[in-house]
Amino acid sequence: MTTSATLHTLENGVRVVCDPMPGLETVALSVVAGRGAAYEDPARSGWSHLLEHMVFKGAGGRSARDIVEVIEAQGGSINAATGYERTSFQVRALKGGLDLGMSVLSDLVLRPTLDEADLTREKQVVAQEIAEAADAPDDYVFDLVQAAAWGDHPLARPILGTVDSVNAATVEGLSDWRGRLYAADRLIVSATGAVEVDEVLDLARRQFGALPSAKGAADFAAAPFIGGRKSQARKLEQAHLVFMLPAVSARQDDYFALRIFAEALGGGMSSRLFQEAREKRGLAYNIDAYADTYADCGALGVYAGCSAGDAAETAKVCAEQIVALADKIEDAELARAKAQLKAHMFMAREQPLSRAEQAAGQALMFDRLYAPAELAQAVDAVTVADLTRLAGLILGPRKTASAILGAKGALKAGDVFERALG
Known about the structure:
Layout: E1 6-9, E2 15-20, E3 26-33, H1 47-55, E4 58-59, E5 62-63, H2 64-72, E6 77-82, E7 87-94, H3 98-110, H4 116-135, H5 137-150, H6 163-167, H7 171-181, E8 187-193, H8 197-208, E9 228-233, E10 239-246, H9 255-266, H10 272-280, E11 284-293, E12 298-306, H11 311-327, H12 331-349, H13 352-366, H14 372-380, H15 384-395, E13 401-406, H16 413-420
Parallel strand pairs: 2-8, 9-13
Antiparallel strand pairs: 1-2, 3-7, 3-8, 4-5, 6-7, 10-12, 10-13, 11-12
């Protein structure tokens, strides 16, 4: 079993992924810059996300309305997203829409207008987005735990930035930041669906081949897991709890062991946390575990939403289940977690846009593409001994990060979690 995807590099360093999916009548295109909020200094916090907004206000001679209408008139859709390590611009289109999609996305990335009046308005929009995030406790609690886990590192700051840092942005400053953020050395053009290699490469050369081959923003330093507590008392119907422990990065050998550990711990309805906290004790409606990985660091996380009166007990259960899983995993449990992980990865590959993003991520992280068989083999190769070793890495440093948002009575849950780890 081999991947149909191929990875190519243009003369200026821009990398191009072409991944035909026979039988499809649609195209997915992602232009991904391998930089995001983690590359910002405090003064530029939120600028990557603000820039992503701004390029849609006008680019390549098209107005904001033109950008959307020209894509939607052909049955397509356009979107973008900013993360800590990457910024993605995406187009879905009918077969034959690759040329237009590539033209529009190259304009957004390389030729945005960046108008002063638009910037003034967009700062107000982003300020509302920041306020909205603060008003959504099940979102805001993750900003709090990032701050608790990563100390002074950019990973500790919210991707949206602050109102003050966003308001400090200027057209000139954003233009300079765009050149650093979307530089050729970390730019990936990834096309899937009803595409052909020659067409993708020809269009990529035409639209991105003239970009200077200069390097962009310097790689950020690896983030040390600091740990700590970030809690806020609010009058809420639920308490929102997030606990994190240091783990491995996406590039380390135990990456798949971490994914499997998180899956067995809280990845589905058969997971330990779901069965113990929800099914047996009725403590939480929502509870899950996740692996949060970056190029050079990572963490194991647990989220739970529960009543304030149950927060301490929920925290205790979370810690106890982590310790119990670290001590022993049953063969059937390990097999089930592997099957679930492979299903998540391969189901995503059946969706063209997810497939394009997945390939772009592999190119950015490893400068190569992985066949499904390779991924399956890596998952299947994880042993009980691997999970035991990983557990030592997670629990050994005796560091935890927690964020609690809810009634005052829930705020002790972070201390309870730490004590229950033993």
